[in-house]
């Protein structure tokens, strides 16, 4: 399918992939690297079938870059509470039919109770317009006001703001006022980990219960600490009272390169060299305290577009040899003689 897309666009892209600099992920086969290699081979095979590909544009343009990534790039982002409209709807409301249908009741002008289905798909222009908008900006849209208001009601009732604030402190490594790391993070986690309430009031409409948030909090804590001592982890799991399956979900984070255990400190131990990771952008320009975390992908794409992406963490499938184009600028060419000036991403 990727080859078909490139053929349709007339693109012979530069292919790069994420190569994590962590022992647990480099020891196993790197999925992104394997997929990138297969994709490169398939593109080469297609070019051999059609020697005229790629077509030469009327004016020189930078070659596209395809980045092959997997979840090891950023394991924290999917664990955080997200407060854009679509994310909150799927997180808190009983959405049916693969996240496209919401049914709710309301009292009409005649005083009678009515039932209405809202279909959330590409046919709803307002849904398309607001689904990635922060929830604070969505309650003004009348068609979706019932759904947005219900999300806000659950947000307030179940004190999700307090949980989300702890999540953001752990994910960003600093408090909202930029005063440094939250030194009371374990105490702040205690209340959410001890709760046993459900996110909604009735069993037939409940999307999830509090154990789901507990797994998210515990996972974020372990990730942010780059592992915790085994005894401390067991105490946290016991305090949270999560199921064996949920505990296994946390343990399985090792498959994404997450370090679970940290050896106890005995005397002075020489600090190990830190693993090299993609840099993360600061959230200085983020207007909402509960949405301070900036996904690593944003920084990666910006660096790729600027031509500054780390070639060790994101290597090329094929080494590019610098040459000079007709205007005297340095350009990179591969074995097919396809050049690029700078780096563009698609």
From TrEMBL:
<protein>
    <submittedName>
        <fullName>Sec1-like protein</fullName>
    </submittedName>
</protein>
<dbReference type="InterPro" id="IPR027482">
    <property type="entry name" value="Sec1-like_dom2"/>
</dbReference>
<dbReference type="InterPro" id="IPR036045">
    <property type="entry name" value="Sec1-like_sf"/>
</dbReference>
<dbReference type="Pfam" id="PF00995">
    <property type="entry name" value="Sec1"/>
</dbReference>
<feature type="compositionally biased region" description="Basic and acidic residues">
    <location>
        <begin position="326"/>
        <end position="337"/>
    </location>
</feature>
<comment type="similarity">
    <text>Belongs to the STXBP/unc-18/SEC1 family.</text>
</comment>
<dbReference type="InterPro" id="IPR001619">
    <property type="entry name" value="Sec1-like"/>
</dbReference>
<feature type="region of interest" description="Disordered">
    <location>
        <begin position="320"/>
        <end position="346"/>
    </location>
</feature>
<dbReference type="GO" id="GO:0016192">
    <property type="term" value="P:vesicle-mediated transport"/>
</dbReference>
């Amino acid at each position: 399918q990727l080859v078909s897309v490139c053929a349709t666009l007339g693109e012979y892209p530069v292919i790069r992939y994420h190569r994590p600099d962590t022992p647990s992920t480099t020891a196993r086969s790197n999925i992104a690297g394997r997929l990138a290699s297969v994709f490169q081979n398939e593109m080469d095979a297609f070019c051999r079938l059609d020697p005229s590909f790629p077509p030469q544009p009327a004016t020189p343009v930078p070659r596209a870059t395809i980045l092959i990534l997997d979840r090891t790039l950023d394991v924290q982002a999917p664990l955080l509470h997200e407060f854009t409209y679509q994310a909150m709807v799927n997180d808190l409301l009983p959405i049916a039919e693969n996240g496209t249908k919401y049914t709710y009741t309301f009292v009409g002008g005649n005083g009678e109770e009515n039932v209405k289905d809202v279909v959330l798909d590409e046919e709803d222009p307002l849904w398309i317009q607001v689904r990635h908008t922060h929830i604070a900006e969505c309650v003004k849209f009348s068609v979706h006001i019932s759904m947005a208001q219900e999300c806000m009601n659950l947000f307030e009732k179940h004190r999700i703001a307090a949980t989300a604030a702890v999540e953001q402190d752990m994910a960003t490594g600093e408090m909202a006022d930029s005063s440094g790391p939250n030194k009371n993070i374990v105490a702040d986690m205690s209340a959410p980990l001890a709760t046993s309430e459900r996110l909604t009031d009735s069993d037939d409409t409940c999307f999830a219960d509090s154990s789901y948030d507990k797994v998210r909090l515990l996972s974020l804590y372990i990730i942010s600490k780059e592992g915790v001592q085994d005894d401390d982890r067991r105490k946290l799991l016991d305090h949270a009272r999560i199921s064996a399956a949920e505990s296994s979900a946390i343990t399985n984070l090792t498959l994404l390169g997450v370090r679970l255990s940290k050896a106890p400190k005995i005397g002075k131990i020489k600090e190990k060299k830190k693993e090299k990771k993609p840099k993360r952008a600061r959230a200085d320009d983020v207007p909402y305290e509960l949405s301070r975390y900036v996904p690593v992908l944003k920084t990666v794409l910006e660096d790729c577009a600027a031509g500054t992406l780390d070639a060790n963490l994101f290597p090329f499938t094929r080494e590019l040899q610098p040459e000079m184009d007709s205007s005297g600028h340095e350009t990179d060419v591969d074995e097919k003689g396809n050049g690029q000036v700078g780096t563009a991403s698609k």
